[in-house]
Amino acid sequence: MTAPTFFDAVGGEPTFRRLVDTFYEGVAADPLLKPMYPEEDLGPAADRLTLFLMQYWGGPSTYSDARGHPRLRMRHAPYRVDEAARDAWLHHMRVAVDSLGLPEEHRATLWDYLERAAYFMVNTEPAH
Questions:
Q1: Which of 46, 109, 110, 127 sits between 20 and 30 A of 91, alpha carbons compared?
Q2: Key word Cell membrane present in the record (predicted)?
């Protein structure tokens, strides 16, 4: 018998949907992040992030089946992702992660990945 994936261990799709829904509630009201989303309705972006995170953590491959390789930096290249945007993204994601009430081990694992991903996405040097 194989060990459960992280996806299964944290509750599967409903957990990732709650995470992303809470995250986008913050984004929708954020004057820095909201303009980075060209679609007025954040639903399609939320769905893409949910499917990506579910696949990354061992869930179904729906994301890559529909969109191919994630190519995260390339997909975000048109947007100015600076330290302020990263920090705003992390703020809303921290609220979302904390809202899940995961056991500390799972919370820390998820947060570590999200924090590393946010730093990786920065594509604009700070002004001097």
A1: 127
A2: no
